[in-house]
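User: Sequence recovery, please. Input:
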């Protein structure tokens, strides 16, 4: 089974139709307005904030997005804001600054920023960074959607089916699984069939990939 093709929840498919949001956090109103026009003209949806605290009050976005943030802000600097939204894997950050030193840039990039731009910079430089960030956001959201679908399927398994799955992905044969669990081989086959049906796995290799995606540790010895 090709994981990228087999899982297509309707709400995940809608991600492709959602207008990406570019959050702009800068205390300079002229910069905000200039970036707003640039972002809107490029086909994205801009949302403007003068401070980091204002941005934090905004609910987490559900669709593709990125954050264009000035490093120097009046209430909360950009690097501290980056730490506070570190769990927003789907929202890459692009830093902009009137000045920038190596330690600041290194800190931002190590924390996951996709770009650190020093003012003045060309429009196309920023737009290229935003495109890259939006692509990363879209990919992250799609991946998360697929994982959630697999998690929902895994939740449907009984305790015994999960045990069988862990042993099967460890490479054990039905006879070995039966011995480890103290049940008959026929019972193992029944559990295995139900488990594969619920997980919608097309092959053992596919089941192993699913287990790896869900971070299910194979049981080598029971």
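Assistant: Recovered sequence (222 residues):
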């Amino acid at each position: 089974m090709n994981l990228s093709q087999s899982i297509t929840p309707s709400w995940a498919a809608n991600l492709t139709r959602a207008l990406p949001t570019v959050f702009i956090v800068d205390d300079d109103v002229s910069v905000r307005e200039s970036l707003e026009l640039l972002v809107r003209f490029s086909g994205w949806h801009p949302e403007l904030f003068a401070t980091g605290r204002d941005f934090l009050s905004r609910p987490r976005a559900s669709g593709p997005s990125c954050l264009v943030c000035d490093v120097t802000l009046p209430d909360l600097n950009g690097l501290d804001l980056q730490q506070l939204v570190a769990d927003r894997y789907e929202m890459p950050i692009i830093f902009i600054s009137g000045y920038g030193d190596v330690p600041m840039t290194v800190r931002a990039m190590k924390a996951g920023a996709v770009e650190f731009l020093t003012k003045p910079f060309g429009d196309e430089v920023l737009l290229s960074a935003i495109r890259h960030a939006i692509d990363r956001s879209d990919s992250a959201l799609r991946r998360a959607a697929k994982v959630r679908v697999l998690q929902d399927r895994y939740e449907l398994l009984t305790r015994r089916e999960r045990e069988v799955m862990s042993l099967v992905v460890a490479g054990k044969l039905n006879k070995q699984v039966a011995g480890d669990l103290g049940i008959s081989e026929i019972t193992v086959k029944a559990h295995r069939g139900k488990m594969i049906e619920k997980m919608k796995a097309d092959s053992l290799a596919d089941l192993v990939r699913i287990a790896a995606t869900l971070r299910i540790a194979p049981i080598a010895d029971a």
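Confidence is low (pLDDT under 50) at residues 1-16.
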